[in-house]
Amino acid sequence: MNVRALRRHAGSVARFLLLLFLVTVAVFLLLEMIPGDPVDAILPADASPEQIAAARQLYGLDDPLYERYLSWIGGVLQGDLGRSFQTGVGVAETIAERAPVSLELALLAMLVALAISVPVAVWSAYRPGGLLDRAATFVTSATLATPAFVLGIVLVYVFGVQLGVLPILGWTPFSEDPVEHVHRLVLPVLTLAAGECVLFTRLLKGDMMATLQQDHVLSARARGLPTWRILVRHALRQSSFSLVTVSGVVIGRLIGGTVLVEAIFSLPGMGTMVITAIHSRDYVVVQAMVLLSAAVYLLMNTLVDLTYPLLDPRVRKVRTS
Amino acid sequence: MTELVQDRPVTAPAAPASVADIKPVRRKRRDVGAVFGAAWIALVVLAAIFADVLPLPDPNAVTNAFSAPPGGAHLLGTDAIGRDVLSRIVHGARISMAVAIGATSIAMVIGVTLGMVAGYFRGAADSAIGIAVNFMLSFPPLIFLIAMVTALQPGLVTLVVALALLGVPNFARVARANTIAFADREFVTAAKALGARPIRILTRELLVNVMLPVMSLALVVMATLVVAEGSLSFLGVGVPPPAPSWGGMLAAGRESLREHPLLVLIPALFFFLTVFAFNRLGDWARGRVGRESSI
Amino acid sequence: MSIGARPRAGAVDATAETAPARLLEVRDLRVWFETPRGHVRAVDGVDLTLRRGETLGVVGESGSGKSVLSRAIMKILAPNARVLPGSHIRLDDVDLATVNPRRNRHLWGVDLAMVFQDPMTSLTPVLPVGKQLTETLRYHLKLSRQAARDEAVRLLRLVGIPEPEKRFHQYPHNLSGGMRQRVTIALAICCQPRLLIADEPTTALDVTVQHQILNLLGDLREKSEMSMILITHDLGVVAGRTDTIAVMYAGRIVETAPTRRLFARMRHPYTRALIDAIPKVSLPSHTRLASIPGRPPVVIDPPPGCRFAPRCPSAQERCLAETPALEPDPAAPEHSSACFFPLGTPSGDAARARNIAAGVSAAGTPVAAEVTV
Description:
- The structure holds 3 protein chains of 3 kinds.
- By secondary structure, chain A is mainly α.
- Chain A has 13 helices and no strands.
- Chain B is built from 9 helices and no strands.
- In chain B, helix 1 (about 30-50) packs across helix 2, helix 1 (about 30-50) packs across helix 9 (about 260-290) and helix 7 (about 200-235) runs antiparallel to helix 9 (about 260-290).
- Chain B is elongated and about 75 Å long.
- Chain C is α/β, with parallel strands linked by helices.
- Chain C contains 11 helices and 13 strands.
- In chain C, the strands form 2 sheets. Chain C has an 8-stranded mixed sheet with strand order 7-8-9-3-10-11-13-12, sandwiched between helices. In chain C, strands 1, 2, 4, 5 and 6 form a 5-stranded antiparallel sheet that branches.
- In chain C, helix 2 (about 130-140) crosses helix 3, helix 3 crosses helix 5 (about 175-190) and helix 5 (about 175-190) runs parallel beside helix 6 (about 205-225).
- The two termini of chain C are about 25 Å apart.
């Protein structure tokens, strides 16, 4: 790597750190904005003034703002995300418990979306106007108009109620019953994957169609190479970079989408945790979740920015020239 | 050596009869989708505006007819506690539309201002606004909304403010890109040469040109905000009950999905048609305006 | 002269059975494109024959249909192209127009090969150069990995690329334009094609590199019995490097002849105009560059008459009403032209003189006095 590339990377990292800092400040201030005294949530309604004062002292609520920020962020960096007002349990622990569910959901949705959209997009680009293309366009338009939560419920109705094929809600850990586990994952994963499928298919198809017009594809055809080979090695490889650029946005949508899907299917993930926390005014939990998801989102986007040049050899050359 | 076909007539033969084998060229069709989209949106907006005047029962009036099927006094049936579904749909539309249009307008005003300032003056202003916009984009959308709702407490005003903030970065980006593109053109240079002040250039010359792609974007943003509001209402942190909202109706209807699926399917259908309409309109607008209107 | 071609002694009966084998025969090829404006007749009745070891130059402006011709032979036309029934393209025994590419996977790339115009875009950017070569070799010739690699390196060396082992692993953007074109040529000849079509192989390159590439093609042509079709808009390129030349205009061949004869005794006014348009060092400075007024037509619903008539300095009334067919010259059967008033004939010279005197052709184009070179 030469100087110019290093500078570019340093710039990305610096921007990441700056934004991360701003995010933590904003999230910290989040709690400050909530009307009412925080102690009201902790102590019973008939607490005496001394108890209130003591509690304020204990939680450092009378300290200046920046001191409270520093102690909070210090705790966060050590893994302490506070204690839930409701349960008293450490938020970090609860998150650790529930994270696997949400992560599994999100990852599977991403994989399923790719597994469906890539072949469909490639074939549609190769045979535009053909049967698959027209069917895919129709389905895509319909799905695009269907918000995730609407889709989820409709799927529940069709498959769960009418056809009775799949379970509607609840979760079975993999360790308990692998088959049932997968069974219960089908609808949630499909619901979550649907939106991303649409995005990937449209993007990839457009990119592939442009690539297929290019001379090097024509040249490969003139050499008599088999179609699938041309589509995959000569066209798809090049077009796949556009999917990477959009992966940052996709991750953000997946994070939000997981919340909705968990709510619909009553899955014990981080999403349902947050919703319950809002309703029960367990703000510490909400704050921790917002911080975590924003930090992860920011990190993923920065990583995408940094790794994109590594994937595309042409960009690599341009950057290092 | 190239050879020739012998016995060719002096005049070349006329076009072969095989022309008939060639399929005729297709003509462009009218954009049916966009027409439908405009019609549906107009219908929904009109119904929302005139909700009070329409002969509908009070959306919050509880009756004895629980979960009644469509027909008779209740055109679309009633929900679990006897409230008229059609009336709730119409009044819910009013709230959804008001929130979406209100939030989009606010987002447009703020976003376009920020974008144009950043695009015209560049330098420090651009950097500062860039950081601010990137900051807003650092949050996954739904998480951002959840955070705002938590901080400001659930309510209509919160909803509008939060949704507006969500939309600001989109408008800012498009406004900035278009401002930069137009700022190089001759008519701006001419205005500068005539001694026009920046504010005049921005409002007189550039704003008109920037607004075109921005309006096209507004349609897409509105669709997004309708869905966002629906999501929040579905989760119970959007429009506060008992005010009707499509998302809330969807959530409530879940409980009786088996026995009374219509309570879910009707709001679902309305969501679908409305977002579909916005999308088609947005596509049409984008086709007319050009590529600069994409995010 | 290429190795393997018959010596041209005396009058030759072009259809003699003892002539060298005809490799490629194109008969009445018509390629029409479906567009919103109608059917664009890119190639509208082309006849060609190519012998083994022969090099044919196809010359024409942009839009003459020369590229479409090559793509029709290679079967890489755009989706909206229609090769009309009645078109024949025969390579030895196979009718390329009707054959199913899937059943004849080892025809294209092996017997037929093509070199494209722009080396920047005709190589896949995301695959190393060597991989693109071995891919073709392994698919068509079923070579093992190692054998393919060795052969690829040998080919790179053959086309004049220094340090071929190193270049094998590099990407196209690491190479210069000239080297990329050499790689493209290597790709084309790797399976020893019987016919190589080069579509403007040097247009996108620097002048010095052009010379090298053309020499390379000439070398390859001499070392093997490979036939070649060299497509270009530049008469200078084909001047010393082809056996025969065919001049195309508006989807048709308007003149064809052995190279020397074409330059010495051109018949068709368009050919003459093309040659006149080449700037010559021998002319005094500030001589106006001769150009052909107007632009080549996009042929959609052609009116009757010769297609060059609107721009032709020799145009007469007849040219606007009737369409001339490609006719051999009675004195020299291998030279044909599609013109009612060919240059060098009494009627043709008279027609030209009439127009110069009137200052305008029958089509209304202004005609200036001739510049004799």
